[in-house]
Amino acid sequence: MTIAQTPSLLGLLATRRSVNPKFLAGPGPSRAEIETLLTIASRVPDHGKLAPWRFLVIDGAARGRLGATALAIHLMDAPDLDEAGRQADLNRFALAPLVIGVVSRAREHAKIPIWEQQLSAGAVCMALSVAAKALGFSSAWLTEWPAYSAPFRAALGLVDDERIAGFVHIGRAAIAPDDRPRPALADIVTWMD
Ligand SMILES: Cc1cc2nc3c(=O)[nH]c(=O)nc-3n(C[C@H](O)[C@H](O)[C@H](O)COP(=O)(O)O)c2cc1C
């Protein structure tokens, strides 16, 4: 599918749903499609033009390697981890054909609050999810414990003030997920006129 053939943006936004990585099948995005996704994802509002985020493209054999790293780290805290837990770690980056880690690198700045830099990283994750959908893929934006594990972040090459905004798992939906309840506008909107 070319960009010109993609469905309307409003239709995509109105129907987009996460798909559990275990239902995200291959083939994953090509190298050119990944570059398209990253280009679109990095085109988000960014107060001060700081680009306070960066990407980890977790593809191919790196997915299994990272799973093995996650398991090794988990076993340090939980040596009695059962077989199901071990398999979950080994497979956590290998279910979908591609995982893109969005790294927030928000730093103290004279004018731009850290909060705004972190919001921009969230916008990156969302733009990435919508762009994946527009290219014919589905996705899941997850963090799970590895995002909050200092040794795992170090294994990914993150420095101290970098954080994982999300691991966005991307593939082709093998199921059509039911929608989930959405908040009623009456509960979340204050009309000020
Ligand atoms: C920052 C962030 C982190 C998340 N981490 C997880 C997670 O670790 N595990 C999980 O089951 N869902 C997690 N979720 C929620 C999933 O993305 C969930 O599937 C999503 O809320 C479904 O929404 P959707 O139907 O609009 O796509 C996270 C969401 C966000 C925004």
Protein model, in words:
The protein has helices spanning 9-15, 31-41, 61-77, 83-91, 114-134, 150-155, 185-188; strands at residues 24-25, 53-59, 98-104, 138-142, 163-173. With 193 residues, the protein is an alpha+beta fold. Helix 2 (31-41) runs antiparallel to helix 5 and helix 3 (61-77) packs antiparallel against helix 4 (83-91). It is globular. 28% of the residues are buried. The model has no long low-confidence stretch (mean pLDDT 96). Residues 17-18, 140-144, 166, 180 line the site of flavin mononucleotide.
Compact summary:
The protein has 193 residues and is of the alpha+beta class. The protein is 39% helix and 17% strand. The structure holds flavin mononucleotide.
Distance between the termini: 43 Å
**How much helicity do the residues have?**
25-40%
SSE sequence, one letter per element: HEHEHHEHEHEH
- Write down the oligomeric state: single chain
> Main beta sheet, described?
5 strands, antiparallel
Q: Number of helical segments? A: 7
| Estimated structural class | alpha+beta
Cα gyration radius (Å) = 18 Å
